[in-house]
């Protein structure tokens, strides 16, 4: 609506200018031929104004607004990611590994750049809800009891609550909300299954599992990458999307490593 108002104002100004010039020329008794030429020039300017505005000015404003929105979005992502990483170093390593692997899996699956970026952003923020989980639970050296595990499972809901009101170009909040759902309906928090789970969440589920298993935690040592890959392979087509698992296994069979991904190699 603001663009139409601006265009209307420009047209009104041009019309007023043309009327003023026409009256001025008439008052000064300027020859009709010259008066007509200048009048035609103003008429041409009047008719071309909408095209100039929509073809040149509006795209420039849209690009400027898009760049501004991107900067703000990256600032939000950086702040949220930093809030989690500063609280817990293992979680920081895990979220970086998960983001890099999710991006690589999406690329391996042939998704376009926009979809790949959406998967990466969701993976970067998938554990942001952990800031609402008591630190003592993550620092516990032994196995969590059922009550503590139930608290940890709330992090998907907490992450969704934090992200749902942020305007991302992708459904980041919903992807994060679903990343512990499983294809056979055995996951949480809603027990979704099959196509009820969005593709980016299926990618995140595999990336999150491989990354989490290979990350050291206070309650256990890190698993070897072969053990993590064997786990997702056994659950291929059951808990995890078969296409996603195949893409993940293909990456590692060609030499993918978390260390190289972290350095951009």
What can you see in these coordinates?
The protein is elongated. It has 12 helices and no strands. It has 265 residues and is mainly alpha-helical. It has 2 domains: 2-63, no CATH class; 88-263, Hypothetical protein af1432, CATH 1.10.3210.10. Helices cover 70% and strands 0% of the residues. It has helices at 2-27, 32-87, 89-108, 113-124, 135-139, 146-152, 155-163, 172-178, 199-213, 225-234, 242-253, 258-263.
Topology summary:
Elements lengths: L1 H26 L4 H56 L1 H20 L4 H12 L10 H5 L6 H7 L2 H9 L8 H7 L20 H15 L11 H10 L7 H12 L4 H6 L2
Helix pairs in contact: 1-2, 2-3, 3-4, 3-9, 3-11, 4-8, 4-9, 7-8, 8-9, 9-10
Put the structure in a nutshell.
The chain has helices spanning 2-27, 32-87, 89-108, 113-124, 135-139, 146-152, 155-163, 172-178, 199-213, 225-234, 242-253, 258-263. By secondary structure, the chain is an all-alpha fold. It has two domains: 2-63, no CATH class; 88-263, Hypothetical protein af1432, CATH 1.10.3210.
Q: Which structural traits does this protein have?
A:
single chain, 265 residues, mainly alpha, Hypothetical protein af1432, 0% strand
- Total of helices: 12
How far the N terminus sits from the C terminus, by CA atoms, comes to 47 Å
CATH class of the largest domain: Mainly Alpha
Total beta strand runs: 0
In terms of DSSP E residues, the strand content is under 5%
Silhouette: elongated
Number of domain modules = 2
- Helix/strand order: HHHHHHHHHHHH
Uncertain runs are none
Overall radius of gyration: 28 Å
Largest sheet, strands/sense/barrel: none
Helix content: 55-70%
